């Protein structure tokens, strides 16, 4: 029997299942809760948010998610698409600043169940930090992944990186402990070419 120590999973085991299902979409429920840290939402913008994946492939595995519930990218407005793209760029910056990966995989599961996505009716983008040598015999021979950092520690590191981003607004927290609220990012308006007005 394979055993991997994963103490953060107790939160999933002890969760209130009633909170999991409002119209069947956790990506709609979690940002409405007043518990960003508990929900693992590390950053927010006008139309999207960044959340840590509860079952990461690597430390820092996050998802950038539009606020509007839709399974089709084409259903999003230009403003929503631009905001999502800008938040993706800010997230890549935060991953580099907070975790220092050698690279990042970006991906989307399009096409529902056949694409392998567990949440197919709310579009989102996965960003997975990668390091040289971050894979070993465990996933290949043992069919077991090993996560080397607790989600709370990853949250703290990414929160600090987002708080230092040029588009971060409001209080980023004080003292040694990170705040329980996600970092708010506000991207300026553009003239349509991508240049700020």
UniProtKB/TrEMBL annotation:
A motif (Histidine triad motif) lies at residues 122-126. The keyword Nuclease does not apply. InterPro entries: AP-4-A_phosphorylase, FHIT, HIT-like, HIT-like_sf. The keyword Iron does not apply. SUPFAM superfamilies: HIT-like. GO terms for molecular function: catalytic activity; nucleotide binding. This is HIT domain-containing protein.
């Amino acid at each position: 029997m394979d055993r991997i120590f994963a103490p953060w999973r107790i939160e999933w085991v002890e969760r209130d299942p009633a909170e999991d299902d409002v119209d069947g979409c956790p990506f709609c429920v979690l940002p409405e809760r007043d518990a960003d840290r508990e929900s693992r939402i590390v950053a927010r913008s006008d139309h999207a948010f960044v959340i840590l994946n509860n079952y990461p492939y690597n430390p820092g595995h996050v998802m950038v998610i539009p606020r509007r519930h839709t399974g089709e990218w084409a259903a999003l407005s230009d403003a929503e698409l631009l905001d999502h793209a800008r938040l993706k760029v800010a997230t890549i910056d935060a991953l580099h600043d907070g975790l220092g990966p050698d690279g990042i995989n970006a991906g989307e599961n399009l096409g529902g169940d056949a694409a392998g996505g567990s949440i197919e009716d709310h579009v989102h983008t996965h960003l997975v930090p990668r390091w040289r040598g971050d894979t070993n015999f465990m996933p290949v021979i043992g069919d077991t992944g090993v996560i080397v950092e607790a989600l709370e520690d990853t949250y703290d590191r990414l929160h600090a990186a987002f708080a230092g981003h040029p588009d971060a607004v409001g209080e980023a927290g004080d003292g040694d402990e990170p705040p329980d609220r996600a970092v708010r990012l506000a991207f300026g308006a553009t003239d349509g070419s991508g240049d700020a007005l």
